[in-house]
Automatic annotation (TrEMBL):
Protein name: Outer membrane protein assembly factor BamE domain-containing protein
CC per GO annotation: outer membrane
A Pfam family matched in the record: BamE
Outer membrane protein assembly factor BamE domain residues: 24-47
Keywords for this protein: Membrane, Signal
PROSITE patterns hit by this protein: PROKAR_LIPOPROTEIN
Length: 86
């Protein structure tokens, strides 16, 4: 029984450890249109994912019901939106 609990405990620790402590409403309010991606990453850390085409990148920090999304054109922020931040 103890051996079966160890993988579950490690998974839970890993999931909790993946939460980005920088995902706060205060940090979201620091973001400004025109910032470089490097400036945004200095505030939020590395994004969970980014994808794009034709010089437009869509990046996400966080996941599910707690996230910040950013759109970049040529490396400059165009728009931000958030969900589930306090």
């Amino acid at each position: 029984m103890i051996l079966r609990s160890v993988p579950v405990a490690l998974l839970l620790v890993g999931l909790v450890g993946c939460a980005n402590p920088r995902l706060t409403l205060d940090n979201y309010q620091r973001l400004e249109v025109g910032m470089s991606r490097a400036q945004v990453e200095a505030i939020l850390g590395s994004p969970r994912e980014c994808h794009g085409a034709l010089m437009v990148d869509l990046c996400t920090w966080g996941a599910g019901s707690r996230a910040i999304h950013a759109q970049f054109l040529g490396g400059e922020a165009l728009a931000f939106q958030y969900q589930g931040l306090k």
